[in-house]
Description:
alpha/beta, Glutamine Phosphoribosylpyrophosphate, subunit 1, domain 1, Rossmann fold, 3 domains, 18 helices, 22% strand, globular
Amino acid sequence: xxxxxxxxxxxxxxxxxxxxxxxxxxxxxxxxxxxxxxxxxxxxxxxxxxxxxxxxxxxxxxxxxxxxxxxxxxxxxxxxxxxxxxxxxxxxxxxxxxxxxxxxxxxxxxxxxxxxxxxxxxxxxxxxxxxxxxxxxxxxxxxxxxxxxxxxxxxxxxxxxxxxxxxxxxxxxxxxxxxxxxxxxxxxxxxxxxxxxxxxxxxxxxxxxxxxxxxxxxxxxxxxxxxxxxxxxxxxxxxxxxxxxxxxxxxxxxxxxxxxxxxxxxxxxxxxxxxxxxxxxxxxxxxxxxxxxxxxxxxxxxxxxxxxxxxxxxxxxxxxxxxxxxxxxxxxxxxxxxxxxxxxxxxxxxxxxxxxxxxxxxxxxxxxxxxxxxxxxxxxxxxxxxxxxxxxxxxxxxxxxxxxxxxxxxxxxxxxxxxxxxxxxxxxxxxxxxxxxxxxxxxxxxxxxxxxxxxxxxxxxxxxxxxxxxxxxxxxxxxxxxxxxxxxxxxxxxxxxxxxxxxxxxxxxxxxxxxxxxxxxxxxxxxxxxxxxxxxxxxxxxxxxxxxxxxxxxxxxxxxxxxxxxxxxxxxxxxxxxxxxxxxxxxxxxxxxxxxxxxxxxxxxxxxxxxxxx
Length: 614
């Protein structure tokens, strides 16, 4: 999603802004820009469509001398991704600079009023109205600080706004309205950094002030003054944050996605480490903050998420119901938030999200909170909005994920859900100790098993070479492999731009089998589990109709190779953990298909890493 970065201090603002925006690239964007105020109080904006290196060239040729400024990476919502629609936006007098995340839901009405007042607009965005609203209040005699607050009060919808005025360059104003995006303020030595994501503050500061929804901050070189929506002064306490910095470089890999798939054995180990006592065969999740007594009252569990997170939640339902005996369901956050779900104080809602900033999932959490449900979140980002809203959390521990298409965060979510389901079953005395012993043994094997899969490349190259020109693909699975089929199809769509559909293999004869012919490859998830014979029957039906089959099967399976055109083998794994091993081949298949098609793998078109608007 759109990224915000700001700086005020004594260093070259343009260079620091560019560096900060580069650390926000992973969120996805289609244009970028910076705005600075020079030493003679002149506001300068520099913008460029496309990648940040385009902006860097513009900044280098201009060489603005300034020590205060704001920057932005934009993901287009209103207006095409071009230079005029890039942020920062300015007022008519070119004195007010603003950058903005979110959507101004009432911008059309505001713009109409401003046009009648004589304001001239230079972009097609909703964001530009904010600069003109500030300008209008200043014209009425307000200070920049008061004008900023007045403007913010007129905006409908969830957003984050940061603004600067050329005539008062001693401070920057920034605010959060709802859950459109976070605002973090990093403290330095007579300098301050503002970012929409804590990742952008690495390695600039380890002392962070987080703005809560409705809070507005006046940020100067050495001070932050925060007020709430009612204008009351808020005493904030900066937090010391330990950054788990991973190597952001690609190293030997061509793409971050390839690197992150290869990192999965290590990240799974990180998900397990410190949570499993191998001597007593016990699982401990101290961050969830729910007591054994509280967990004992839970009679229903709802997992909410979007996209990849939803697919993980669907697999998590199988884990939770099997290991804890508690009814569970996975729901799409954007649908959950707009109805009146049956939720009570005995319901446990588990939100899933990599960034912890996804607006639909945050809204679903708020809906559950109003109904007094217990809330946990599985998230990859400490101090995110989701972690602060929840009663407790389970860190994914996947490390920094640069590629827009989720890989290691998906696997770590699956492992986190399995750990939680086992922990819950143990806490409620549903699980026998003997099961936990076997469970932990299986968990320990996962890193090595995933390592075996990611080392194999030839089979994916062979399949991608022969299938990458296909325009349609079908993914099928049964039971816990059904959400894996959905996730595999999503990965193929995201990075190779190939239409792919995931479905339950049991649904095939209820209509989709009409699509089967020799031009439709079918990826069949058929590990040796209790659905194996049913999957063989379905694959035979596909083969009879001329379909091409790419099977994911358990090592040593000789029968399936007689039916499938291509077979990808994975290590044997217990049913509930099998999605961890069967997902990796689908990631690699999507990666090599996208590579063969010449796609932008790390930053697919139209996509963002963190979706902070509907």
